[in-house]
UniProtKB/TrEMBL annotation:
Main location (coarse class): cytoplasm
Full protein name: tRNA (uracil-O(2)-)-methyltransferase
EC top class named in words: transferase
Taxon lineage: Eukaryota, Metazoa, Chordata, Craniata, Vertebrata
Function: Adenosyl-L-methionine (AdoMet)-dependent tRNA (uracil-O(2)-)-methyltransferase.
Compartment(s): Cytoplasm
Catalytic activity: uridine(44) in tRNA(Ser) + S-adenosyl-L-methionine = 2'-O-methyluridine(44) in tRNA(Ser) + S-adenosyl-L-homocysteine + H(+)
PANTHER family (alphabetical): TRNA (URACIL-O(2)-)-METHYLTRANSFERASE-RELATED (PTHR21210:SF0)
C3H1-type domain location: 700-730
Organism name: Physeter macrocephalus
A molecular function GO annotation: tRNA(Ser) (uridine(44)-2'-O-)-methyltransferase activity
Assigned EC number: 2.1.1.211
GO cellular component entries: cytoplasm
Length: 744
C-alpha cells in the first residue's frame, strides 16, 4: 500500500464529513468533471453489504516477515503518516467497541449515527432515480443486481480465505479489527465510459465496484476484469482508495493505492498515480468545502451516455471539415462542435423515443431561429426531414447545398405560425422566441413536442426580469420556461448538455399532461396564462416577472408567411416585435473612422500628459527613454470627453471601454483602468503555436501603420524588424484577401 498524497482541508463552515461524501458522489457519478478523457458513467446496481469476519486460530498478524510473504511485493499494508489514521470520538471513522467503557445506550447511539451517515452518503447517488431507493440509474445493458451480489460474495470469500492485506486496506488497519467491529458497507457497480476516439479504438467501457465505508471514512474502487472463462473478477493491481481522516482539529483527505508496483495506467480510465495524488486529490479537497447551490440536473441524465459518446464521435469525424470552410466571423470550433454535440443528443433522444413508441419513421422537425443552420444540416443529413427558419440569412447557408432547407423569414406568434405536421420544434438559443416555442408546439398539434436551449433572457414581450433574488437569473429563467411548458400542458423535463457553453441546460416537452379530448379547455388555460403575463404579472409559483417593454436583442427567428413589415394582426399577445432583418452592429466598429481616431488621440494625450510611471530606457542604449505615460480610470477619462462624444459612445455596447479595447494596439484596459500599451512587455511568440494563429499572424503582419510610429512623441518603442506594424508606407503590405469558400 502506498499513499499517493494527503492534503489538509480547511473547514470553516463545518461542512465535513458530509461535504466529503458529496465530493465522493461527484467522482462516483460524474468523474468526467475531473477526468476530461471520460464521457461519463452508468450506475448499474447497488446493495448493502459487510466485510467478512476473519477467524483467528493463531496469533494476530504482525509486521514481520511471515506477514509480508502473504502478499505480492508492495501490496501489503504499510505505516502511513502518524496523524489521521484513526478518528477521534465523533469523527467519521469512530467504531463502536465491545469494551466495558461503552454501555448499551452509547453503543446504540453510535449505531444510529452510523446509519445516519450512511444515508447521507447514499443520498447523492440516489438523486437520479426518485422513488427507487437503493437502486442506481438504469441504462442500456443493465447489469442485474444478482450479478453484483455474486461478484461481491466471491470477493468477500477471497478476503475471508486469507487475503488479509486487501482486508486491511479496506479497514485502514490490520484484519484483526474485524473482530472488534462489524458494520455495513454501500456497494455500487458502475460502468466507466471513456470518450470515443478514432486514435484509441481500444477504449472500451470498464466496470468497477465502488465500496463506501462511511464509518471508516473510506471509499475504495475495485476494477473488474474477465478471466479466461469470461467471468468477472476484481483486478487487484488497480485498486485505490480515498480516505477522510481527522487529527485533533484538522481534517485530511488522502489517496492510496493498494499495489503501486502493479498499477497499470492507460491514461484514460486508469490515470497515472501522480494524477490521482495531485489533480484528483486537489479537486476533492476543494469540492468538500464548496457551498453547493445545486438546482441543475446531472449531465446527459435523459439519454444513454454510451450511445451519445459513440454518436458524437461519429458526427465529429463526419463534419469536422466544416471548421476549414467556415465563412462566418464567429469561432468555427465553438459553433461546429457545439452543434455536433447538440445533434448527437437529439439523435439519441429521438432514437430512444422511437423505441419507446414502437415506431420506425424518423421524426420531423423545424428549427426556429436556426442561425448558421448547421444543426439543421446535420439532422437532415442524418435522415430526419426538417427545415430551419431565421430572420437573417447567413453566408454559411450556401455551403450546405440545396438538400438542407433553410428559410429567411421572421415569425410572429399567431394562428398562422403553426406547424401541425411537424413532430418537434427546436429552439437553440432562439432568444425572443424561446418562451413562445412551447406555446407554438402545444397549439400546432397534440403530437408536437419541443426542445429548447435557453440562452438570452426574454419574456413573451421584451426582456425577462427576475423577481426572486434567492435564485440566479439563469435558474429563474429556466424555471420560467418550465412554467410556460407546464401551463401549455407539457410534462417538462430538464437535462444538462455537454457543450462548450455556460448556458447548457435544455428543457424538453415530450408528452402532455391531458388527453386529446381536453384540448379545448387546456387551450383556454393557455390563453389565460398568456394574458396574465401581459405587463409582467407573475402567476402563483412563477419564479420571475415580466418584461419592461418590447425592445429586445438577439437573433430572432422563423416565419410562416409573415415579415417584420407585415401588420401584427391576430397576435396571441400584443406588444411582441420580431427583430429587424438588418443586424445592428453596436460594438464601436461601425463608428466613423475619423471619430474613432479623434477619441484615441485625445485619450492618448491624456495618458502621456499624466504622471510618468516606470520610465525606463530602451534595450538599445542609443534610444532615449520612452514615455509610456500614466494610468487613468475609465471614469476619469470619460470626465475629460465632451458631451456629444459621450452621447455617441453611450449608444454602443460597452461605450468608451469597448472603443479603447478595440484599439488594442494603443491601449491596455484592465480592472477599469487604461494605460498606453508598452510592446516591450508583450510575451514573445511561442515557437509551437497552433497553425491557425500562425497563419493569422502572417496574414496581418505589416498590413497596418504603427500608431506609435505615426503619433507617439518618441516614436515606436520597438525596432522596425520586431514591430508587427508598418513603420511608414514603405513597409506596408497589402492585406491578404480571403479565398472563396467552396461547398462541401
Amino acid at each position: 500500500m502506498a499513499e499517493l498524497g494527503r492534503v489538509v482541508v480547511r473547514d470553516p463552515d463545518s461542512l465535513l464529513p458530509g461535504g466529503f461524501w458529496a465530493a465522493v458522489a461527484v467522482w462516483v457519478e460524474r468523474p468526467q468533471v475531473a477526468n476530461k478523457r471520460l464521457c461519463g458513467v452508468r450506475l448499474e446496481a447497488r446493495r448493502s453489504a459487510s466485510l467478512p469476519r476473519v477467524e483467528h486460530s493463531g496469533p494476530r498478524p504482525s509486521s514481520g516477515p511471515e506477514r509480508e510473504e502473504q502478499a505480492p511485493a508492495g501490496c501489503g499494508p504499510k505505516e502511513g503518516p502518524g496523524h489521521g489514521r484513526r478518528f477521534p470520538e465523533g469523527g467519521p471513522g469512530t467504531r463502536p467497541s465491545a469494551g466495558p467503557e461503552h454501555g448499551p445506550q452509547e453503543s446504540q447511539g453510535r449505531r444510529q449515527q452510523g446509519e445516519d451517515q450512511r444515508e447521507a452518503a447514499k443520498a447523492p447517488l440516489l438523486s437520479r432515480v426518485p422513488g427507487q431507493p437503493g437502486k442506481a440509474g438504469a441504462g442500456e445493458g443493465d447489469f442485474p443486481a444478482s450479478d453484483l451480489d455474486s461478484l461481491w460474495d466471491d470477493f468477500s470469500r477471497s478476503l475471508a480465505s486469507g487475503n488479509r492485506e486487501m482486508l486491511a486496506f479496506f479497514t485502514r488497519s490490520g484484519a484483526e479489527s474485524q473482530l472488534e467491529a462489524q458494520h455495513g458497507l454501500d456497494v455500487i457497480l458502475r460502468t466507466v465510459i471513456p470518450k470515443t476516439n478514432t486514435h484509441c479504438p481500444l477504449n472500451a467501457p470498464r466496470r468497477e465496484i465502488v465500496v463506501q465505508d462511511v464509518l471508516s471514512g473510506t471509499v475504495t474502487f475495485l476494477p473488474l476484469e474477465e478471466d479466461n472463462e469470461g467471468n468477472l473478477k476484481v483486478k487487484t493491481s488497480n485498486v485505490y482508495q480515498i480516505q477522510l481522516s481527522r487529527s485533533e482539529e484538522e481534517w485530511f483527505i488522502s489517496v492510496l493505492i493498494f499495489c503501486p508496483e502493479r498499477w497499470h495506467s492507460d491514461g484514460i480510465v486508469y490515470p497515472k498515480p501522480t494524477w490521482l495524488g495531485e489533480e484528483l486529490l486537489a479537486r476533492l479537497a476543494r469540492w468538500c468545502v464548496e457551498s453547493r447551490q445545486g438546482g441543475f440536473k446531472s449531465t446527459l441524465s435523459l439519454i444513454s451516455i454510451m450511445k451519445y459518446s459513440r454518436a458524437r464521435q461519429a458526427l465529429k469525424e463526419k463534419y469536422k471539415d466544416m471548421v476549414k470552410v467556415w465563412p462566418e466571423v464567429t469561432d468555427p470550433e465553438k459553433f461546429v462542435y457545439e452543434d455536433v454535440a447538440l445533434a448527437a443528443y437529439l439523435l439519441i433522444l429521438w432514437e430512444e423515443e422511437r423505441a419507446e413508441r414502437g415506431e420506425t419513421a424518423r421524426q420531423s422537425f423545424v428549427d426556429l431561429g436556426c442561425g448558421n443552420g448547421l444543426l439543421v444540416h446535420i439532422l437532415s443529413s442524418e435522415g430526419h426531414p426538417g427545415r430551419g427558419i431565421d430572420v437573417r440569412r447567413r453566408k454559411v447557408w450556401d455551403v450546405y447545398g440545396p438538400e438542407t432547407r433553410l428559410e429567411e423569414s421572421a415569425i410572429i406568434p399567431n394562428d398562422e405560425t403553426l406547424f401541425p405536421d411537424v413532430d418537434w420544434l427546436i429552439g437553440n438559443h432562439s432568444d425572443e422566441l424561446t418562451p413562445w416555442i412551447p406555446v407554438i408546439a402545444a397549439r400546432s398539434s397534440y403530437n408536437c413536442r419541443f426542445f429548447v436551449l435557453p440562452c438570452c433572457f426574454f419574456d413573451f414581450v421584451g426582456k425577462y426580469q427576475r423577481r426572486q433574488s434567492q435564485k440566479t437569473q439563469y435558474r429563474g429563467y429556466l424555471d420560467f420556461i418550465t412554467e410556460v411548458g407546464s401551463a401549455c400542458g407539457f410534462h417538462v423535463e430538464e437535462d444538462c448538455l455537454r457543450i462548450p457553453s455556460t448556458k447548457r441546460v435544455c428543457l424538453i416537452g415530450k408528452s402532455r399532461t391531458y388527453p386529446p379530448a381536453a384540448e379545448g379547455s387546456v387551450d383556454e388555460r393557455r390563453t389565460r396564462y398568456l394574458n396574465s403575463r401581459r405587463g409582467g404579472p407573475v402567476s402563483p409559483g412563477a419564479s420571475a416577472g415580466g418584461a419592461d417593454g418590447p425592445e429586445g436583442r438577439g437573433a430572432l427567428v422563423a416565419g410562416a408567411g409573415h415579415t417584420p413589415e407585415s401588420p401584427a394582426e391576430g397576435l396571441w399577445l400584443s406588444g411582441f416585435h420580431p427583430r429587424e432583418k438588418a443586424e445592428c452592429v453596436r460594438n464601436c466598429a461601425a463608428l466613423p473612422r475619423d471619430f474613432i481616431d479623434r477619441v484615441v488621440l485625445q485619450v492618448a494625450n491624456l495618458l502621456l500628459g499624466g504622471e510618468q510611471l516606470n520610465v525606463r530606457s530602451s534595450q538599445s542604449r542609443s534610444v532615449k527613454a520612452w514615455n509610456r505615460g500614466g494610468s487613468l480610470s475609465l471614469a476619469e477619462v470619460a470626465g475629460e470627453l465632451d458631451r456629444e462624444t459621450l452621447r455617441r459612445l453611450k449608444r454602443e455596447c460597452g461605450g468608451l471601454q469597448t472603443l479603447l479595447r478595440n484599439s488594442s494596439q494603443v491601449f491596455q484596459v484592465l480592472d477599469g483602468r487604461v494605460r498606453i500599451r508598452d510592446w516591450r512587455e508583450e510575451r514573445p511568440r511561442k515557437e509551437k503555436e497552433p497553425e491557425a494563429k500562425r497563419r493569422l499572424f502572417s496574414e496581418t503582419f505589416k498590413t497596418r501603420i504603427c500608431w506609435f510610429f505615426a503619433h507617439h512623441p518618441d516614436g515606436c518603442v520597438l525596432p522596425s524588424d520586431r514591430c508587427p506594424f508598418a513603420h511608414g508606407p514603405g513597409e506596408l503590405r497589402p492585406a491578404s484577401s480571403k479565398k472563396k469558400r467552396q461547398p462541401l
